[in-house]
Amino acid sequence: MTYSIEQMQAFVAVVEHKGIAQAARELGKHVSTVREQVNNFEIDTGLTLFERLPRSLIVTPTGMQLYKYAKALLNESDHFEAKIDSMHSGVPDRLTVAIDTSLIDQEIDLLLADILQKYPYLNLKVLNGDTLQVRGWVLSGKADVGLAFAAVMLSKELQVRKAFDFEVVRVIPAQWQLPRDASERALADKLQLTYSFLAELGLREADLVSHRHMVCNNVHQMLNLIKTGIGWGHLPQFICNSANLNDDFTILNDQFALWSAEVLVKEAASVNPAMQMFIDGMCNFERR
């Protein structure tokens, strides 16, 4: 027995619209064409799918059972066609994006959601790590594209594009009760939390203010430690603004610095449409 997609489409439309004329309008076909397709579908299946009354069709219990399977099959057919279109567009089966844990933000999640909306058959994987891990994953091929703190560390094996700038502010525990205009001198004897990647790149001195320090590998770990009162640190303001719901910490008035995030792609990599959408989205972000 052979059934065509067009026959199943006609059958499903007649069931859903409770009539051939209404189904024909939905499908954009002549009534005679839809009637013939439904009749042939019944002949080919050898089943009575409709009870024919003078002015209407009523789906039989047998027809309703078959409708559920036909509907599922048509959905799979749509997925199949969409997958073919995706392959013609050059979109791969998989995409791995590495994102610096310290840059995780709702806006980035929304961009990833938009990519999946446009490419629904893309198997998207997201890796989170510190700045050097993200660079290493892209270099090794474990990640196709990465987002990390901009680092003074050039590599001929990487394509680097500036993503966005963001303000870095001094953040202290709320329980310290220091004024918002407190100076560096007021923090010099207190424990400072600093980033591990700065130490590994030999750039820690540019961040250090205090005589004592503790190394952390991401902003969120630093922020949690600051909330406990253990120390203070320099953090991206856009992260702090979304995290200070209970006034657990205080942002001092002076801006410490303006840092940048960068998008990383391996030099030899072929940039496919999904990768390009991520790169363009990140590079179109406004200053945070």
UniProtKB/TrEMBL annotation:
UniProt keyword annotations, A-Z: DNA-binding, Transcription, Transcription regulation
UniProt xrefs under InterPro entries: LysR_HTH_N, LysR_subst-bd, WH-like_DNA-bd_sf, WH_DNA-bd_sf
Pfam families: HTH_1, LysR_substrate
Domain HTH lysR-type: residue ranges: 1-60
Domain of life, source organism: Bacteria
PROSITE patterns per record: HTH_LYSR
Gene3D superfamilies with a match to the protein in the record: 3.40.190.290, Winged helix-like DNA-binding domain superfamily/Winged helix DNA-binding domain
Protein family (similarity comment): Belongs to the LysR transcriptional regulatory family.
Listed name of the protein: LysR family transcriptional regulator
Source organism per UniProt: Vibrio ulleungensis
UniProt lineage: Bacteria, Pseudomonadati, Pseudomonadota, Gammaproteobacteria, Vibrionales
